Amino acid sequence: MAITGATADREHGVRLGDILLRNRLVTSSSLLGYGVANVPVFRWGMSPISNFVPLSRFGAVTTRTLTVEPRDGHFTVRDDWKLTELPGLLRRYLRVLRHTDGGWLNAFGWCNVGIDAYLRDYYPRTRDQRTIISLGGFSTEEFVTLVDKVNAAVPAGEIAAVEFNVSCHNVNFDFNQIIESVLAEAVPRSNHPVILKLSPDYDYLAHARLAARHGVSALTAINTVKALRLDPETGEPWLKNRFGGLSGRAIKPIALRVIAELRDAGVTLPIIGTGGIRTFDDCREFFWAGADAVSLGSASWFAHPHLGYALAPLAGLRIRRLLHKIDRYPPPPR
To answer: Mind telling me the catalytic residues?
Structure first.
C-alpha cells in the first residue's frame, strides 16, 4: 500500500510511497528517448541538452512510451540518422513537432522500438540511472503483456516504477473504455510500483480514485493537453495527426490547477507534477500546489526551436543548477 507524500531517506534518496527516487526531480516521458542514444554526438531521439546533463543525477528518467510491438506512429522508430539525411529528418519533425505560443505541439503517436527491443538493446545500458518505464497499449491484454515482459526482464527494485500512459491524445483512442480494467488486471501483476499518468482532458478525479482503489503507487499530473493549430494561409493542420498534445509553459497553470483540485478532493496518492517547469520557482509552485515530486518536460528539454544545439550547453547548465537546488530542498509539509 502506497503512503501519502514524500519522505526523505538520506542514504537512498526520496520515497514517494512505494517508489524510491534519487531526488524529487524526474524527467518526463519521450524527451530523452530510452535514456541512451546510439549516436554519441547527435543523439537522435533525445533532447540535444542531454549531452550536457548527467542523467544519473535525476530522481528518475522516464522512457519514451513503449508498446508491445514496434510502432512508427506518425514519425519513425529510427534513431541512427546520418547527417546527410538531416533534411529528410527535419521534414518529418515538422509534421509531428511544432513550436507554438508558449509551448510545443506534438503528435509522435507512440513511435517506439517496442518493449522487447528496449529491454534487450537499451535498458542494459542505463543501469546507472533510476528508470521509470512508460508503457502504452490499446487493451487490457496489451498492458498485462507489457507488465509481464518488464517483470521477466527487470528484478523488483531495479527500477523506480512503471508508468501507465492511459491518456495520450496522439494515438486516436478513447482510453476511458479500458482504464478501469487495465488498473484492475495489470496493476496487481506488476512487480514494480505503478504510476498512472493523468490527462486534464479526461475525468482525472475519477481516474485518480480508480488508481487508489486498484493499488497504484503514484500519479503523474499532467499529460499534454489536446490542441490544434492550422496553417493561416491554407487552413491545413500543422500536424500529421491533425490534433496534437500541447506541452510547455502554456499548460503550467492547468497542471497546477489539476494538482490542487486532486488534493482538494482528498486524493492522497503521491503526485509527480509536470507541465511547463523550467526553474526552481516553478518547482516550488508545484510543491505548494500539492505535488511530491516534479518532472521536467518540453519547457526544459527543448531549447529555442531554431538554435537547438547552439544553446544546449547553456540549457544544460541551468538544469544542473536546478538539480543542485532540488537536492537540498526539504520534502513539503503535509
So the answer is: 168
